[in-house]
Amino acid sequence: MSERTNFTQTRGAFIVVEGLDRAGKSSQCEHLRDYLQELGHAVKYIRFPDRTTAIGKLIDGYLRGQSQLDDHSIHLLFSANRWEIARLIEEDIANGITVIVDRYSYSGAVYSAAKGNPSLSLDWAWQPEIGLPRPDTCLFLRISPGEAAKRGGFGVERYENEPMQSRVRELFQTLFDLQPNGDTQFIDAGRSFQEVSEEIRGKAADCIARVGIIGPLRKFASIPA
Ligand code: Z5A
Ligand code: MG
User: Can you give the residue ranges of the Thymidylate kinase-like domain (predicted)?
Assistant: First the structure.
């Protein structure tokens, strides 16, 4: 993106970054935020789960294995954690601020459905996301299990194990195939940090430039059965 990029527009862009463990989501989001800020663009970075809220603290305890919760209950808490911040996202975007979000509803539906609970299908898991702000673009950072392993072994949190991650990988693809055409863009995250960040910057710039064409911020709809 050139330094002369014109960011004049009516609203901010809503950019989501998704991907498997260690794909580099958080470091790339922080880098993109800093880059856009340096260019004088108003930008905010939000991570889900947001572990700072009352709901987020329940999620944090669950992920660390300090509490046990029914699969449906924890799923709805993850979704509630997005709903409690959704209005702020909408307000920021209306005020011309670009919002970068690290994991969103896609992770929400996919990780819960990957547990294999027969009463928690992908379709069921998507339901509480309907009506949340829909990203202008979702950048999915693709990484192979081998490349991810080079960035460190699995951590101690729940879901950080190979069988879960491989089900998550498949379900992400299933979910993206059900999303409206063009919402998701795939990025090879197995390359150097700089190569990946250059591609992300370019796609973010395109998204910001297209916001006027997209029109008002959209909402998530149901996924086809
Ligand atoms: N979860 C859920 O179940 N339901 C929901 O609704 C939501 C989430 C929102 C915690 O998420 C868990 O919550 C997660 C999904 C579930 N479970 N799992 N698995 P989290 O987002 O809090 O987890 P995290 O630990 O922050 O993210 P992460 O996925 O493990 O990592 P990352 O953000 O993708 O990567 P990173 O921290 O930026 O980088 C990882 C390391 O790789 C780090 O040392 C970097 O310096 C290095 N790195 C990054 N890029 C590169 C490149 N290009 N080359 C080499 N090294 C690199
Ligand atoms: Mg992260």
Answer: 17-200
CA 79, 83, 84, 88 torsion-angle sign:
positive
What's the pLDDT at 149? Answer: 85
Residue 9 confidence (pLDDT): 53
Q: What is the number of the ligand closest to the CA of 157? A: 1
Confidence of residue 145 (pLDDT cuts 50, 70, 90): confident
pLDDT at 224 (0 to 100): 84
Burial of 69 (0-12, 13-18, 19+ CB in 10 A): middle
Question: Ligand 2 centre from 26 Cα, in Å?
Answer: 4
Instruction: Check residue 10 and give its pLDDT.
Output: 85
Q: Give the DSSP H/E element, type plus range, for residue 30.
A: helix 25-38
Q: Which ligand is nearest to the CA of 18?
A: 1
Distance CA 108, CA 122 (A): 10
Q: Indicate the CATH number for domain 10-214.
A: 3.40.50.300
